[in-house]
Design brief:
about 120 residues; mainly alpha; Four Helix Bundle (Hemerythrin (Met), subunit A); 3-stranded antiparallel β-sheet
Protein backbone atom coordinates (compact mmCIF):
# COMPACT_ATOMS: atom_id res chain seq x y z
CA UNK A 1 0.00 0.00 0.00
CA UNK A 2 1.43 3.41 -0.91
CA UNK A 3 1.70 6.32 1.52
CA UNK A 4 -0.98 8.17 -0.44
CA UNK A 5 -3.44 5.30 -0.08
CA UNK A 6 -2.66 5.04 3.63
CA UNK A 7 -3.33 8.78 4.13
CA UNK A 8 -6.76 8.66 2.50
CA UNK A 9 -8.07 5.59 4.32
CA UNK A 10 -10.51 6.57 7.05
CA UNK A 11 -10.50 10.26 6.15
CA UNK A 12 -13.20 12.65 7.34
CA UNK A 13 -14.13 16.18 6.37
CA UNK A 14 -14.75 19.33 8.40
CA UNK A 15 -15.86 22.74 7.13
CA UNK A 16 -12.96 25.18 6.84
CA UNK A 17 -14.60 27.96 8.94
CA UNK A 18 -15.22 25.48 11.76
CA UNK A 19 -11.60 24.27 11.69
CA UNK A 20 -10.32 27.87 11.70
CA UNK A 21 -12.61 28.73 14.63
CA UNK A 22 -11.39 25.73 16.65
CA UNK A 23 -7.75 26.56 15.88
CA UNK A 24 -8.23 30.22 16.86
CA UNK A 25 -9.86 29.22 20.15
CA UNK A 26 -6.94 26.88 20.92
CA UNK A 27 -4.47 29.66 20.08
CA UNK A 28 -6.28 32.14 22.34
CA UNK A 29 -6.34 29.64 25.19
CA UNK A 30 -2.59 29.02 24.78
CA UNK A 31 -2.06 32.76 25.19
CA UNK A 32 -4.19 32.91 28.33
CA UNK A 33 -2.44 29.87 29.79
CA UNK A 34 0.99 31.35 29.05
CA UNK A 35 -0.07 34.53 30.86
CA UNK A 36 -1.33 32.55 33.87
CA UNK A 37 1.87 30.50 33.98
CA UNK A 38 3.89 33.71 33.92
CA UNK A 39 1.94 35.05 36.89
CA UNK A 40 2.03 31.92 39.05
CA UNK A 41 5.74 31.30 38.50
CA UNK A 42 6.43 34.71 40.07
CA UNK A 43 4.48 33.92 43.24
CA UNK A 44 6.37 33.05 46.40
CA UNK A 45 4.82 29.64 46.87
CA UNK A 46 4.67 27.23 43.98
CA UNK A 47 1.23 25.72 43.39
CA UNK A 48 2.28 22.48 41.73
CA UNK A 49 -1.25 21.24 40.98
CA UNK A 50 -2.18 24.52 39.31
CA UNK A 51 1.07 24.64 37.34
CA UNK A 52 0.78 21.01 36.28
CA UNK A 53 -2.82 21.45 35.17
CA UNK A 54 -2.00 24.64 33.27
CA UNK A 55 0.85 22.83 31.49
CA UNK A 56 -1.53 20.00 30.58
CA UNK A 57 -4.05 22.54 29.28
CA UNK A 58 -1.35 24.28 27.22
CA UNK A 59 -0.21 20.95 25.78
CA UNK A 60 -3.76 19.92 24.83
CA UNK A 61 -4.41 23.24 23.12
CA UNK A 62 -1.05 23.18 21.37
CA UNK A 63 -1.66 19.69 19.92
CA UNK A 64 -5.16 20.68 18.86
CA UNK A 65 -3.88 23.89 17.23
CA UNK A 66 -0.93 22.20 15.51
CA UNK A 67 -3.03 19.34 14.11
CA UNK A 68 -5.73 21.69 12.83
CA UNK A 69 -3.28 24.10 11.17
CA UNK A 70 -1.27 21.27 9.63
CA UNK A 71 -4.44 19.95 8.04
CA UNK A 72 -5.52 23.45 6.97
CA UNK A 73 -2.22 23.86 5.15
CA UNK A 74 -2.06 20.39 3.61
CA UNK A 75 -5.62 19.12 3.20
CA UNK A 76 -7.75 22.11 2.18
CA UNK A 77 -10.13 21.21 -0.66
CA UNK A 78 -12.84 23.17 -2.45
CA UNK A 79 -16.12 21.47 -3.29
CA UNK A 80 -16.57 22.11 -7.02
CA UNK A 81 -20.37 22.18 -6.79
CA UNK A 82 -20.87 24.36 -3.71
CA UNK A 83 -17.55 26.27 -3.90
CA UNK A 84 -17.21 25.77 -0.14
CA UNK A 85 -13.88 24.80 1.38
CA UNK A 86 -13.47 21.84 3.65
CA UNK A 87 -10.58 20.07 5.30
CA UNK A 88 -9.85 16.39 4.85
CA UNK A 89 -8.83 15.00 8.24
CA UNK A 90 -7.04 11.63 8.19
CA UNK A 91 -8.25 9.09 10.74
CA UNK A 92 -5.05 9.30 12.82
CA UNK A 93 -5.37 13.10 13.05
CA UNK A 94 -9.04 12.85 13.96
CA UNK A 95 -8.07 10.55 16.84
CA UNK A 96 -5.47 13.12 17.96
CA UNK A 97 -8.09 15.88 17.78
CA UNK A 98 -10.57 13.86 19.82
CA UNK A 99 -7.98 13.17 22.50
CA UNK A 100 -6.88 16.80 22.64
CA UNK A 101 -10.47 18.04 22.92
CA UNK A 102 -11.22 15.59 25.74
CA UNK A 103 -8.00 16.53 27.55
CA UNK A 104 -8.79 20.23 27.13
CA UNK A 105 -12.26 19.75 28.62
CA UNK A 106 -10.83 17.75 31.52
CA UNK A 107 -8.13 20.30 32.31
CA UNK A 108 -10.63 23.17 32.08
CA UNK A 109 -12.79 21.33 34.63
CA UNK A 110 -9.80 20.74 36.91
CA UNK A 111 -8.76 24.39 36.64
CA UNK A 112 -12.29 25.51 37.50
CA UNK A 113 -12.06 23.45 40.71
CA UNK A 114 -8.88 25.43 41.50
CA UNK A 115 -10.68 28.74 40.77
CA UNK A 116 -9.00 29.33 37.39
CA UNK A 117 -10.92 29.87 34.19
CA UNK A 118 -9.90 29.78 30.54
CA UNK A 119 -13.21 31.15 29.33
CA UNK A 120 -13.01 34.15 27.04
CA UNK A 121 -15.12 37.10 28.05
Amino acid sequence: MSDHEDNTMGAYTLDEPYVREMAKKAELQMGMIADLLSVITKEESLHTKVMSTLCDAFSSNYHLWRTLYTNLECNLVEDEKTKQNFIIIPDKDLTMLEQAIIARAYTASELAKLNYSLKMH
